[in-house]
Amino acid sequence: MVEACFNHTKKLLNGTEERQNRDLQVRNVSWEICIEMDEVFLNQIKKLSNGIQKQQNKDMQMRKSTLEQCTKMVEVYLNQVKKLSDGIKSQQNREIQMHN
Asked: Superkingdom, according to UniProt (predicted)?
């Protein structure tokens, strides 16, 4: 009787161990799926980040180009104003000399 009870307990324990092993396998599979999904998500984020950086670089290049064009236009304008100012001074000097 004791031996039958022992065998029955042993079978129950084996069944419990098998159940625990199956549960662990299911958890491992679930864990692996989560890790794979996480890797896919991280790769997508990296791609988006790279795309954003490229777009920001393009935007910065456009801004830099626009700033350079504006700077050149200001330089041209300042040179013209300087020439006009020099011309006005020369004319004023001639007029002063004529009055003297």
From this structure: Eukaryota
